[in-house]
Design brief:
alpha+beta; two-stranded parallel sheet; binds flavin-adenine dinucleotide
């Protein structure tokens, strides 16, 4: 989505664009499927927001958090999140790129090691099998008959957390992030067991009568949630290829849209011959670092609170019950 969005923005400035996409559209992706933060403003500035609503996007206005059996009250989000399935969203962006005159090559993998002059790396997460002695993996599936207390819900468990997001036509997106210690053998738990959580928890109740859309199931693994600075990269990169923000923030798509917008001006100037490639790359990198550094630091702190076993219970419960702490975390991670 970072690459498609950049392509749309560059086409609006008359820059020739070719997007190489290893997969094809539409297709399901592991994602919580809600856009929270400044990315919504980017979509508005690029004239894409109406198309999102026409494609069935809805606003999430409330959220609730649970750790095991304990939950917060349902809280209003200070800024609503925009919810749309990646199945619809990515295809929508692909269509807009083509309409704007961009060339989109599907089922075409970029195989060069070199991301040299004129090439932007927007190919998502960088493969990293383990981090801090753990394997991270994500699971997602769509379901019907899931009764939620809030538009967005997050349920923490011993091994990770599961998020719910209300989508159009009664569909609920169920998406989890989990970790497994690298030395520990894989458990016999199926993906359904992992998403359903422990008996007696609100998470288990939510999925008790769920009708799962098996065709929407997908998974992802091998990623790093440590922040990276753009100026330390030798390529021009945006989105997850630059750095991943912990998914608990629900801000990754927003960062992909924001980085794409930050890159439009410098790359259009390069295309007009007003700057060299290395100047353009440097300007994009500095703009991304300025915009994201503080947010990534707060997000790392939130991720640590979610997963540090001893502190989790105390701090997690403090965040659950303190409206101020929750508001601070929410504001600083987007
Ligand atoms: C469990 C989980 C939950 C999440 N929940 C949320 C959420 O609720 N809200 C949110 O905002 N973000 C969320 N995110 C993060 C969000 O999904 C990403 O930040 C976002 O997709 C990044 O967009 P991108 O364009 O950089 O990468 P991607 O969306 O991954 O796109 C990269 C594209 O590059 C293609 N590609 C890869 N290699 C090549 C190649 N060599 N040649 C050609 N094409 C290639 C891939 O096929 C893919 O289509 C979540 C992430 C995870 C893991």
């Amino acid at each position: 989505m970072a690459g498609l969005t950049l392509g749309i923005g560059l086409r609006r400035r008359g820059v020739p664009v070719t997007v190489w996409e290893a997969g094809h559209y539409p297709r399901h992706r592991v994602c919580g499927e809600f856009i929270s933060g400044r990315g919504q403003d980017v979509l508005a500035r690029l004239g894409l927001l109406d198309a999102f609503f026409e494609a069935g996007a809805d606003l999430a206005c409330t959220a609730a958090f649970y750790l095991g059996k304990v939950g917060t009250p349902v809280r209003d989000l200070s800024t609503p999140a925009l919810c749309l399935s990646r199945f619809a969203m990515d295809a929508l962006l692909a269509g807009h790129l083509r309409q704007a005159g961009g060339e989109l090559r599907e089922d075409a993998r970029w195989r060069e090691d070199d991301y040299g002059e004129g090439v932007v790396r927007a190919n998502g997460r960088r493969l990293q099998p383990r981090e801090d002695g753990c394997h991270w993996f994500g699971l997602k599936v769509h379901a019907h008959n899931v009764l939620l207390a809030a538009d967005l819900e997050m349920h923490g468990s011993q091994t990770g957390y599961v998020g719910f997001c209300r989508l159009a036509r009664g569909v609920v997106n169920v998406c989890g992030l989990f970790r497994r210690p690298a030395g520990k053998p894989e458990s016999a738990q199926t993906w359904q067991d992992l998403l359903r959580g422990e008996p007696g928890t609100p998470l288990r109740e939510r999925l008790a009568d769920a009708a799962i859309d098996q065709g929407s199931f997908c998974s992802v693994a091998g990623f790093s949630l440590k922040p990276h600075r753009a100026v330390s990269r030798s390529e021009c990169c945006i989105g997850d290829a630059l750095t991943m923000i912990p998914p608990v923030t629900g801000n990754g798509m927003s960062m992909a849209f924001e980085a794409a917008e930050l890159a439009i001006g410098p790359l259009a100037a390069y295309s007009r011959g007003e700057s060299s490639w290395s100047e353009a790359r440097q300007r994009v990198a500095e703009a991304c670092d300025r915009t994201f550094a503080r947010r990534l630091a707060w997000a790392r702190c939130l991720q640590w609170m979610m997963f540090a076993p001893r502190l989790r219970a105390r701090l997690g419960s403090a965040v659950l019950h303190s409206g101020l702490l929750w508001q601070t975390m929410f504001t600083h991670t987007r």
